[in-house]
Amino acid sequence: MQASPFAENATMARFPITYIHPQPVPRVLPAIPETKLRILVGDTFKVLVQDPNGDWIPGDAGINHDMIVPDLGLPVELNYDRKREGDVVAVRWKNGPASGDPSEYIRVHRYIVKASDVNMDDEVLNNAHPLVLYLTEGVPQPAQAAFFFEVTRPGDNETPSAIATALIKLSRPGGTDEDPLPGHQNLKAPVVPKPVFDKLEDVVLQIEAYPHIRVRDVVVITWGGVPTEFTLTAEQAQPGGTLTFVIPKDVLELAGDAERLEVVYRVRDEVYNHSEDSNGRRWSMPTWVEVDANDNPLSALWIEEAESGQPGEFRLHLDSLGGNPATAGIMVDGVYVRLGDTIELTVRGTTRDGAAVLEHYYDDVKVVGRPLTFKIPYEVLARLAQSSAAVYYTVVARVPGQRGRVRKAWRAWMAALADDVPPIRSKRITLRVDGEVVDLAAPVVVDAPGGQLPIDAPARIDVLPYVPMHEGDLVMLTWTGTSASGQPVLRQIEHTLSKNEENTVLRFEVETLYVNQLDGRLATVSYTVTAGGARRQSDVAVVRVGTWQALYPAPTLPEAQDGVLLPENVPAEGALLVLPAAVQVVPGDVVYYHWQGSIAGVYGDRKIVDETAEKPEFRIAKAQVEANLGGTATVN
Questions:
Q1: Would you say which domain of life the source belongs to (predicted)?
Q2: Deepest in the core among 72, 156, 162, 359, taking most CB within 10 A?
Q3: pLDDT digits (tens, 9 = 90+) for 297-321
Q4: Three-class SS of residue 166?
Q5: Cβ count near 469 (within 10 Å)
């Protein structure tokens, strides 16, 4: 089950905090003709569009399937100098290449600036805060588009902005897959013409062209958990054809031997549409290859909590772990794995979004004749949800001379290395992980204890350290909601990580104007991390802003008596939290609870209502109750 957006709040003090503030805004902003309409999120994509002559040139943004908000449309942002109440803003749009003829652009949106959009007493604030609009009328259409906005003030002529361009693709690579079977049924299994038995050499691999194939699609092929990316050329991206790729020998060597080595692929296009099957997984149907090219005497390991299928294949259900680690077992036979040897366990895979997962664990052999076990942390396995990893071990001998007499196959290596034994690796297993994807923890709204955020002040929001967290990562915080007047509210703040910010808490501030616009409403806060061609989406934090009227009665805790909850009355699985009878839910609803301890801080969880439409029950961890012993807690 997912951890609460605030579950790690109590440990935040261990990390240094980097404060991130919006960039200072000069008093005089550029004139409207020098600004452009911004496509939110999409303006971070590097895309190519065609000019009127048919030549490819850089575009300003990309628009994909996930950027269209249901019932609202496409969010865009615009800003101009000295906004005033009563200004009339129009967005004009043209499908196709840009042109300088205004008559080719149609008006797709008209908006009158309201008093709540500006701070009449502060010109700098007027300049600093852009308008967010949603386009619904006839846009976007697949292919490409050009667009601009114009402002009309009573008594003045229209003032247009500069023209921006966007590449638009609303279909996913591979199309829609309604089949519940694992693997995208429209992404056919890759074909490996011959097995890899005797020696390592480059391998030719073929894939059938998939629906909605397009130039500059990125095909990511993982061979035994080792990914290789290929970008399609115009000649390759032909419907009905066959794609041919070469997997380098170096990849095969890194992936190693296996009785059943998994070969799969996924696709993302130029505007970051991802292939996705009916279960939300992004990978193709698999091909299994036997690889035995290293003369490797070490048997594969096993995962105790996982289901064993075909030889070398395990399936792990995250729900069955209850947040606990999984156990990898290695046979210590005293021959190939000896007393005193150092064992390195490796987990190598990718997340659902394509981010690399590589973890190493070490231990020494202290007993012969019994399995040596390693614990793979739940947090690592959760990152592999709806994906897979290769798991294997490496043995390093401490008594190399004796090892050489046992392993005849390695005598040549040992002679060449003057009795210095090289490490040897086991065969791989493929570990497939089922469960809900929570790759990035929700942000923490620092000023919202118990989920209640005051108005008339900025909102401080922390992004906790994530894995991996590297210099150059683009972190985008999103604050969104709907005002009491029904107007969408959206604020996004971007930040690129520096070297010193690795493994630190990142602090963002959402300005008071955006906080006050959601007075009495809900604010949803999340963030994305873009790195290495992969975009990762966090879980969400939901807070109540300002003056708030409770919609439901308080929940109940059966183990609490007369408002007192004693740890000895709480079972090992935690204190039961029961929703009131007045709460009605439907499938797909998300139910959150927040526990605010006076000693241990904020804790919580969320559950998605399943097809049975039954109200979920929560368990408050016994450790949280014990951590607040002698204090108080509120729960809602």
A1: Bacteria
A2: 359
A3: 788 999 999 998 788 889 999 988 8
A4: strand
A5: 18
Q: How far apart are CA 555 and CA 170, in angstroms?
A: 42
Number of CB atoms found within 10 A of residue 419's CB: 10
- For 545, the token pair is 């802003």
Over 70: is that where the pLDDT of 295 sits?
no
Summary mean pLDDT of the chain = 82
Residue 19: the pLDDT is 46
405 HSE (CA, 13 A, CB side): 3
**pTM, rounded to two decimals:** 0.67
Q: In angstroms, rounded to a whole number, what is the distance separating the alpha carbons of residues 25 and 23?
A: 6
CB 443 within 8 A of CB 476: no
Q: Give the DSSP H or E segment for 385.
A: none
151 pairs with which residues across the strands?
89, 159
Under CATH, domain 444-545 is a member of which superfamily? Immunoglobulins (2.60.40.10)
Q: What is the domain partition of the chain in residue ranges?
A: 31-168, 203-433, 444-545, 554-635
Tokens of 41: 């999120």
Q: In the Cβ-directed half-sphere of 469, how many Cα atoms lie within 13 Å?
A: 19
pLDDT tens string 523-574: 999 998 988 667 788 888 889 899 766 667 888 888 888 888 888 888 888 8
Task: Cite the beta strand spans of 367-473 per DSSP E.
Answer: 372-376, 387-396, 424-425, 429-434, 444-445, 452-453, 459-463
Q: Is the sign of the CA dihedral 334, 335, 341, 342 positive or negative?
A: negative
* CATH code for the domain defined by 31-168: 2.60.40
298: left (phi over 0), alpha (psi -120 to 50) or beta: beta
pLDDT exceeds cutoff 80 at 212 = yes
CATH topology match: 31-168 vs 444-545: yes
